Amino acid sequence: MIKAGIIGGSGYTGGELIRLLLGHPQAEIDFVFSTTRAGKSLSSAHPDLTGITDMLFSDKVNTEADLIFLCLGHGNSSEFLRSHDFAEHTKIIDLSNDFRLADDASFEGMQFVYGLPELKLDAIRESKFIANPGCFATAIQLALLPLAKQGLLNKDVHINAVTGSTGAGVRPSATTHFSWRNNNASWYKPFTHQHLGEISESLNSFDQQIGELFFLPMRGNFSRGILATAYTQFEGTLEEAGQLFSDFYEEAAFTQITEDPIYLKQVVNTNQCHLHLHKHGNTLLVTSAIDNLLKGASGQAVQNMNLMFGYPEKTGLELKASIF
């Protein structure tokens, strides 16, 4: 049984992680650390846990835990690790962007592996330290990795992805409160989003020429999920593209290629990524859909935990979507 500690459990990703671990047959929550909610019940931050757990937030960190999940704001994980020394056997999964890029992966004697199972499966199994991918980065990489591996992304790639309000975190802002977000849509950080760095590193890992990535992130008027579209020049047939994707994801536990066009509701509340291919002339359109809080964050973190401790990838992640 894995004894897991959660650092920063009051946000959206922390809440999802608590729910997943409470139902995981091979893991138990040892503590949930919070500097602002210590002594309060977990249900004070996550009311849906009322009657499910009586656990309290703690101001103590068990440095002997088997696994630590870091659910802190970007830039705070490195600060936390500098001030806490964990046991030699303790493994760490960080859900921030502190260690995702190659230049940041080596930190204080720890070597973080980029935690996208569809790309780094064997390395994740052997690693003690995982940098969990970003949500946009997960959806977009899964749409493009099969093409990158075959050297078929040598032309410009145009990407549009819309995310729900939970992608901005639990703390309200001018663009997340209901009266602004409802019946509204907008773009932000055009062509400069921070996830482009990790996307580019992964696509370039096959030593193939990669064209320029033009990424336009969008805010949607819904709570959770990411729907991404990416298109680029492709000279082959749709059938050839389909075979290429099927071969690449043949062993993937959670990435599926569908014949029918996809939509968000079929993946929300699951750890699935659904992909759909469409050909128009010499242009290939790839559509990708994930739940940003699960496959884009906490679900993928549990998937990585399973790999690190030798359990089947799907353990504790048999979630069901609803189309209603």
UniProtKB/TrEMBL annotation:
It catalyses: N-acetyl-L-glutamate 5-semialdehyde + phosphate + NADP(+) = N-acetyl-L-glutamyl 5-phosphate + NADPH + H(+). GO terms for cellular component: cytoplasm. It is found in: Cytoplasm. It comes from the Bacteria. SMART domains: Semialdhyde_dh. Pathway: Amino-acid biosynthesis; L-arginine biosynthesis; N(2)-acetyl-L-ornithine from L-glutamate: step 3/4. Its EC number is 1.2.1.38. NCBIfam families: argC. Belongs to the NAGSA dehydrogenase family. Type 1 subfamily. PANTHER family: N-ACETYL-GAMMA-GLUTAMYL-PHOSPHATE REDUCTASE, CHLOROPLASTIC-RELATED, N-ACETYL-GAMMA-GLUTAMYL-PHOSPHATE REDUCTASE, CHLOROPLASTIC-RELATED-RELATED. This is N-acetyl-gamma-glutamyl-phosphate reductase. It comes from Poritiphilus flavus. The lineage of its organism: Bacteria, Pseudomonadati, Bacteroidota, Flavobacteriia, Flavobacteriales.
